[in-house]
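Archive entry. Fields below.
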Amino acid sequence: MPDGPVLLVEDDVSDFRLIQRAFAKIKPSIPTIRLTHGDEVVAYLAGDGPYENRSIHPIPCALLLDIKLPRRSGFEVLEWIRTQQSALKRLPIIMLTSSSHQVDVNKAYELGANSYLVKPSNNSELDQLVSTFRTYWLELNEGPNL
Amino acid sequence: MTEPALATILLVEDTPSDATLIRRAFEKTHVLNPIIWTRNGQEALGYLSGLGQYSDRTRYQLPALILLDLDLPEMIGFELLQWKRTQPYIRRIPVVVLTIDSATSAVNSAYDLGANSYLIKPGNPDEIMRVVKTIQEYWLGLNQPPKLVLRATPDAR
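PREDICTED_STRUCTURE:
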């Protein structure tokens, strides 16, 4: 298992609760951190302001990123991360969004998303998604040095 | 002409015995997607660019997923990654590195050059089977693939 929490970027409270519930069913548990808007993600990853202390706000091992976010959209966050000069630019970014529009999917890949997942409409599918996410990205995949 | 239901997987692997194991594992996992095997980076580039025998796109579809070994003759995997990210449409295709090299520097370089994921190629058939099953579940099941050729309307061709 990689070090670091999974960063969940989701502004919708009810969607977040459902995702969090799906994560809570996973054993052994995976630490998650919730952020709600694009500027917050950039501040967290840059270690700015309230996020300066890395022992409290560790670098994540993966980012689950929604597209429609207040302040800075998921696409803008994605672009910001991929254009960093530091190792941060390698952070695995998995889009998790309700949009299955082909334009959004294509744009995400063009901007360097590692993968694109569509939020399922029911809870059991969401549990399955989170479980498959865990198996693939946290167990099988070899993560970069961040 | 409608698109075939099953997306093509491009396997770039120079070791024939590994290629056979991987293809067999896909068969056993009941993956019916066509798997195109290219032995080196040049051949993979030819396939992706539609050169020579690969110009027939009805027969040689652009892949929905690329499984890439890094240690390849002629053109190493890193060079293929570098080339791929400059190509319109093709740059969207997810690349999963599948290699025996677990060195941190190789992993980091692959991500820097735009690899979507990095998996270690196991040495024994049972383990390869497990990896292939997970690739199938994730990349052919859960993941939303990019669209490579845009058409005006579904019935336009």
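CURATOR_NOTE: The first strand of chain B starts at residue 9 and ends at 12.
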